From TrEMBL, chains A, B, C, D:
Residues 1-10 have a biased composition (Polar residues). It holds the Pfam family Spermine_synt_N. The lineage of its organism: Eukaryota, Viridiplantae, Streptophyta, Embryophyta, Tracheophyta. This is thermospermine synthase. The keyword Transferase applies. GO terms for biological process: polyamine biosynthetic process.
């Protein structure tokens, strides 16, 4: 059957398509995934096939083969990551903290079930241990199965994949320390499993004690667009500031490029020193919002992006 | 089908969904099939999965598992048939001609690859031979595989499935006669494979000679709605009238009910004598259009419904 | 209202479009109205303009100029009536009861704010008084303004337009009797204003006492499709049967055609005797459902079609 | 125009909505504008009303009142600018070239009919003459009417609005020189009016000769996203490089902030020195593409973004 049907196996000889037939069109652009970004805004992308859908204890999950973006992971109705451009997010999440650390050896990933964060971390030759702790076994399993770009990472002996709540896991590992802890979680939505991992108490009682001397914590913190940064981004930033010492970026553009060359296997597609100087310099609107933010994220005073989790009341 | 959600069986322990979990929602209602009925009119139905898509020599084909209609067959972007209500179309296509014939034994189906027309015909105890001739082997194969409601029919020894152009097949069978010939073709669209099977010359030179004495020809003839009947329906009717003797319905409501009881196995869901008297009595708008139609369908003067076939120039 | 309604006048000379310019396309087919028919089924039609939108005490209302259907009235998110085919519904609602009555003079319309039901009634030369009682003044006003096909009816001196709840109005008119009472209401939806006008107590205590000797009550009763008839149609039918004597259609096809000729001005587009014999003969599925229905519609045991009214809790 | 545009005035007393009524919902989120970004990707935003639609000699144009973005200008089916965030684009287009010039007095805008580019330029106290030359009078007129944020700019005596093709206008003004010329054109699409204003010959023969000594030319150059930059952006950049001397940004972050304070009235919302250093530092992907681009934009070798202009063959 090959490329466009849902099966990974030919059903039988009769159905196999001649390789010389023209690319089909018609109905193919008529299957769509529609995501409600906000109540009054949607986007829709055409599908080749539905690779997997499921409802786990925690989340609604799906893996689509989309026409514009390749394979795309959707959790609780929100696009998390897509094959064609996931490198942008994952390079930016992983390399800056690891490169700012003098010699990162042990890394802990909160979430990250897709495997791409682990893949980027494992490119660092200094790293000898990565613990990836995701709550949802089904996500991990089908990403392992379908996302061939991460196969090598999933098979790397330095990687330890744990199915558990990141908080419980970090609390259990009382004697361990990590040089870098990476929060690769879904955005906080009502009814979803992640919002408790953006709170001050979690950062203070659970994350910080697990960092080694000079250790670095980094987390994705939701959308940071010209308006969307007001949803959760500024509030998470302000919460981090209460707990962690602010770490000015101590290395220059040139030093970052040098360390990439020395420590990272292969070539980054997106991130280098110059890219980092651009993406880490915020515009006036967002800078003002960060400056004015006073809200601290707690379980009782959480904020959410637009969406609906499985366990929403 | 394999390990994706298209299977009706649990695939393996890791991925199988607990039977106690609530029905998933969220993303699941966010996969849609969208059909452009006209340039300014669409309808969209939610998908559970894409069971099959393909591009054959003749057509773009797809089988979806839809949320509102069950399994649905789409050819060249147009919904042909859906599990929940296909009985309406197929009972109305098949039973009236067979019941109006005194003793139908041999039946020829032009098209009908889905298998439902054969299923209805094979319910007639008088019938001892059904030839179903569809041009598209892939359609026949996946309908045989997925449409369990037609499995028994596909396995009936009275049924002979032929993959061929219906015109070529009828012309080849020079010595054979059929008591009923049924046209179960897709609507004529530009670039599609069917429009030549709605022409006067086809009816005259190919169909009529294959009917036995007292034989009946019936064909689906496109949409017959308050406006849509003007697309192809009246013109096909007028073309038939040039070639075939008009056969007034010779049997009463009661006689139809009696013959159903005597000759048809099982119980019809939709069609009985009363239903037939209603659906065969046309409204004033359509009657006027039929009365005023002068166009005869020929290859050089074809008409089409809205849509785009694979081989459209 | 101001900002979102539309003027019927050119705003100024500069903006007027040359009459020789080609019909615009592009963006114009990109404005759509989308109606959720059920949770998993939608249809979408392209808009030329939004003529009026508003939120009254009772309902959300809108009048669109649509590309496929001309002007279309939408109440509580559901398409009620469209310019191109409203004659089908209104002819079928009005003429059968009036033609079955020997000499209808006084007619009461519950609802009907659009004006089309009044228009059809006023074609009957026997009629000398029509009371149209709609709860929503805004609907009546913009239909009067925009639906030019009903202008003559709205100006007919035999028509009395009342803004009131139909129940309250009928109860107030204690001494009056009507030869025909027509229910031209929106389908019952949760939170909408109409569902109380489909109940047994309303029919019994309010409607029946206002019918003159030999008077006829007719009501629209929701969708009657192969599946949708189970939503409210069978239940309303069963409720009517508890209250009103069943009136077999006493006149033949030919007699109906004769009375149309004698009593109805102009020519019906859709309804004649033959059409009526077809549309009033139900198919086996619906007949079975009517036969088996036991539910009686009361305020405490109401049924609804899919949708959301303004005052839904 | 008449019937399909919208008045800003209440039509009459009857229709005006009580100010105490709740904001309408229901149908209101059911009117959508749908833009096809690529063949397999769309986005849709909910509409309050269609303020204006038209088809001019050059373009299909529309002004919508959208729910998520306020008023939005759409040309040839593509969203050009929206009330809530147009300041980002316009501040970034205008202020960098004017601030890099020591004393900009005369400015020419190619396109810019919306008025926002003029508004930003007119904030510069050094400027004493702005010529805005747009080909489409209808766009200019309805923007003047509806975009109140630009009213003051349209009335500024320093502004001269010309309806003409920018090329023709620049060629006509043989004796004039401009300190800054701003290209505020729609993206080049097939069949649209703008693509000839992105060519080498236009830059060389028409634009460059009209720049005064030390004059600066700036142009919008299409989307610059991680993939979309390959459509036209790199090619326009490479074309500019053939014609204009590369002007390194000679002023520092601090100097830019100082000049903003000295020369620009009011406060920028988005652009300051820090923002500029970020947005003008490109990521690795885009830098590599710019470095490798060899195509030069000419009329015979044009490139286009996805879309369809009115005069597409």
């Amino acid at each position: 059957m090959g490329e466009i049907s849902c099966s990974t196996e030919p059903i039988n000889g009769v159905l196999s398509r001649s390789s010389s037939s023209p690319p089909p069109s018609g109905y193919r652009k008529s299957c769509w995934y529609e995501e409600e970004i906000e109540e009054n805004l949607r986007w829709c992308f055409a599908l080749n096939s539905i690779l997997h859908t499921g409802s786990t204890q925690y989340q609604e999950i799906a893996l689509f083969d989309t026409k514009p973006f390749g394979k795309a992971l959707v959790i609780d109705g929100k696009l998390q990551s897509a094959e064609v451009d996931e490198f942008v997010y994952h390079e930016c999440l992983v390399h800056p903290p690891l490169l700012n650390h003098p010699n990162p050896k042990a890394v802990f990933i909160m979430g990250g079930g897709e495997g791409s964060t682990a893949r980027e971390i494992l490119k660092h030759t200094t790293v000898d241990k990565v613990v990836m702790c995701d709550i949802d076994e089904e996500v991990v399993e089908f990403c392992k199965e379908y996302l061939v770009v991460n196969t090598e990472a999933f098979n790397d002996p330095r990687l330890d994949v744990i199915i558990n709540d990141a908080r419980a896991e970090l609390e259990k590992r009382k004697e361990e320390k990590f040089d870098v802890i990476v929060g690769d979680l879904a955005d906080p939505i009502e009814g979803g499993p992640c919002y408790k991992l953006y709170t001050k108490s979690f950062y203070e009682s659970t994350v910080k004690p697990r960092l080694s001397q000079g250790g670095i914590f980094v987390t994705q913190a939701g959308p940071a667009g010209i308006f969307s940064h007001a949803e959760v981004y500024t509030c998470i930033y302000n919460t981090l500031r209460q707990v962690f010492k602010y770490s000015p970026l101590e290395i220059s553009c040139e030093e970052m490029d040098l360390r990439i060359k020395q420590r990272v296997e292969g070539e980054n597609k997106y991130l280098d020193g110059t890219t980092f100087s651009s993406v880490s310099t915020l515009n006036k609107v967002v800078r003002n919002s960060l400056f004015n933010e006073t809200h601290v994220y707690t379980e009782g005073a959480a904020r959410f992006i637009y969406g609906h989790g499985k366990n929403e009341l």
